[in-house]
Amino acid sequence: MAEKHGLDHLETGMSAIATDPQGKDNVPAGHIPVTQEERALSRALNRKLDIFLLPFLSLLYLFNGLDRGNVGNAETQGFTKDIGAHSDDLNLAVSLFFITFVLFQPPSAAVGRWIGAKYWVPAIMFCWGILTICQAWIKGRSALIATRLLIGLFEAGFYPCCVFYLSTFYTRFDLAVRIGLFYGQYAVAGAFSGCIAYGVFHIKSGSLETWQYLFIIEGAATCLIATVAVFWMPLGPGSAWFLDKQDRAYAAERMRLDHAMYTQHTYGESGLENNRLNRRDVIETAKDWKLWYVLFFNILASVPGQAFSVFLPLVVKGLGYSSINANLMSVPPYICGAVGLYLFALSSDRRKERGYHIFVGLLITLIGLIITVTTKRHGAKYAGLCILLFGSYVSAPLTVAWLSGNTPEPGKRALVLGVNGFGNLSGVIGSQLFRPSYAPDYLIPFYVTLAFIAVALAGYLAYRFTLAAVNKRRQAKLARMTPEEVEDEKLNPQRYGDRKYTFMYGL
């Protein structure tokens, strides 16, 4: 076997690395098991991670989605009126939430990389859980805005930290389907939130308003699960409590092999790099053209998913449902979103392709939007919402998997995923689009969103062709180099990670 099975082998150096067995030139080389024994070992390891790690992280994200979107459910019960605010103040508060949420993603992701997601993720979860509980007793516009700003501050680092954390356990073409399952909890959270709200809003006894019980129950549950996370999450693949000694060694070694052609590090017993973040990581992230290229289109493509995480119950209410039933009827579209995301992510990993999968997902979103804005019948509009959400959750997680797989240097990857969090500016756009003044049909917001998706669809296609052109130029350059020059290019630190001529971008 090419892999070594002792922790004492986790040092700097090169080991045998498999390239794509199908001989494709659109994927970077990395750890792809070749022998039957290697494949069985890798599958068994993934199965253990899928049982003990991925579902738990997905549960954390479920509570993240609940605490972010529950103000939309609360508003169906007169939340802003009861606290002495105006309905437009909720749109402003949601917009400002995304300001702190976006601005603090890179620094929060950097802190998570520095001290470890094992400690940082539970800490920020507990803080926003307390703030969610506090929302039950706020009064006035200022308190609403302040609370949402603080929740945005603490939630900022959660997603990039967790995605980077997953990328230290799963190799690049095992990652998208896991990110899909993880990110899918955002859609599931919408469905789950609707179910919880439907039950909680039937509480008629007690001295509190029904929306107050919603904040208290969901915030307390977040604090509880955050406490459990401190003990459940391992620091890295080499210290996972649910793996035996041989599995821990192999888990750490295969991650080293996955990037060994482009990065050189020393490793600790946890399987993580000893030098986790440096100045060059920051500089290279700022200069990374492929990140800034795709970011604009990621923002546009994410508008439907971000907007409907909060405002879908209000949009459904506009179709003629009562305030309580609107929360229940928001569940099926969210389920469609989760199913669509999982199917696309699974196909993306199996085919080792990202760009066309995102393109098709956006095309489905566009079709759903067209149906929603052109039909007059409520049933057809509701079907359009289901189609719309089926495709709208695809682009964001596959973009993350795309950037992650194309950024082999771990420190830079953590920062790239943090900066990619600027894609959540779509939440600011969405919260300003779906204003009460456009109720009940929200036609203008839907038309604007349709235009955004059309531009994003063309942009992602252009991005894929640009990466393919870069690969073609690199292949031509490598063809003119001697074997000694190629080997020197792999080891020479002059070009960093994905900037090396030997690195081919995944498409």
In short:
The chain is an all-alpha fold. The chain is built from 23 helices and no strands.
Protein model, in words:
- By secondary structure, the chain is an all-alpha fold.
- It has a single domain (55-241, 289-499), classed as MFS general substrate transporter like domains (Growth Hormone, Chain: A, Up-down Bundle), CATH 1.20.1250.
- The chain has helices at residues 36-52, 54-75, 79-82, 87-103, 105-115, 117-134, 140-155, 158-167, 172-200, 210-232, 245-259, 279-286, 289-301, 303-317, 323-329, 331-351, 355-374, 378-392, 395-405, 410-420, 425-433, 443-479, 483-491.
- Mean pLDDT is 83; it is low at 1-23.
- Keywords: Membrane, Transmembrane, Transmembrane helix, Transport.
- One of its GO terms (molecular function) is transmembrane transporter activity.
- Pfam families: MFS_1.
Radius of gyration computed on alpha carbons: 23 Å
List the total number of helices: 23
> What composes the largest sheet?
none
Mean pLDDT, as a whole number? 83
Task: Report the structural category.
Answer: mainly alpha
Instruction: Report the CATH topology name.
Output: Growth Hormone, Chain: A
Assess the beta-strand content as a share of residues.
under 5%
How many DSSP E strands?
Answer: 0
Name the CATH homologous superfamily.
MFS general substrate transporter like domains
What's the N-to-C terminus distance?
Answer: 29 Å
| CATH class identity | Mainly Alpha
- Bin the helical content: over 70%
> Architecture, CATH level 2?
Up-down Bundle
Pfam family, one: MFS_1
Keywords: Membrane, Transmembrane, Transmembrane helix, Transport
Subcellular location: Membrane
Domain Major facilitator superfamily (MFS) profile: 53-474
